[in-house]
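User: My collaborator sent over this chain with a note saying "see what the structure looks like." That's all I know about it. Can you take a look?
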Amino acid sequence: VDPAKIDVNIHPTKHEVKFEDGRYVYTLLQSVVKKTLGAHFVVPTASQLSNAINSNPTAPRLHVTQPDGRFNPFETPKPRVTTSWEKLDDLLNTPIPTTRQPDIFTSQEEQPVQSADIGGIFQVDNTFIVAKIEGELSLINQHRAHAQILFERYEAKQTIASQQLLFPRTVELSLADMNLYLEMQSDINAMGFDTSEFGKNVIIINGLPSELSKEDGASIVVQILDDFKTNYQELKINKKEALKQAAAKNAAIKAGKSLEIKEMETLVHDLLHCKQHTHTANGLPIIVKLTKSSLERFFQ
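Assistant: Without extra context I'll predict from the sequence alone. Here is the result:
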């Protein structure tokens, strides 16, 4: 036994010690004693048995057993019982099944259109993408471009898969926001969110669109509701379109995010296949073409 697992200060006169795992010591001693008794069990000799029987004819005949030198109590397999901690560990390590979600920049439906010639692509300040498209130099706002892609995906009513959260999040809303949420709940969940009512003025977020799985789901949902009210009141558009614009804005990649070359190429490709790729739904520019004449004006 490891000395570090023995407490010798349990008794003031050191008459007793305490083992950290007393059950282990008890089981070990029990097994050793059991093996010793089984291997060295002493039985009477033949002459001793004969004398004992002849001296008492009415005594029952004794059954003679022979010692088994190979006896080992450890050879007997015991069924292993799974502990509660092991069951919990298995549960936590069980992967949560998720519906396969395409890349955040890739449209879910293949469109039979010809791919544009995109080359010389790079990123500026992790906010803008510069690319040569069909021989013309273009400057693209990456956040607005992705928001437009998502908006048209929502408009096409494409199914957006939701990735379940290991630890669901709750958020408390004002009474007005709670009433608004209850009115738009089905539309919010159709855009990849998995939310439900969780008490008075409280909602629970069980899942998010795959591109938001690492974001703060609570703040995203609240921001969508705030932007929805702004869009609905200021832009004078219908509620569903206002909600789609708010969701696309908050689910899109943000300015300052570094992108790989492949991600930039896919983003530009998907943007060019949108019905409206030059401006957002509320009229903000997405892509600006830098022609030779426009560049020459900077040097005049």
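A starting point for your reply to your collaborator: The two ends are 88 Å apart (CA to CA).
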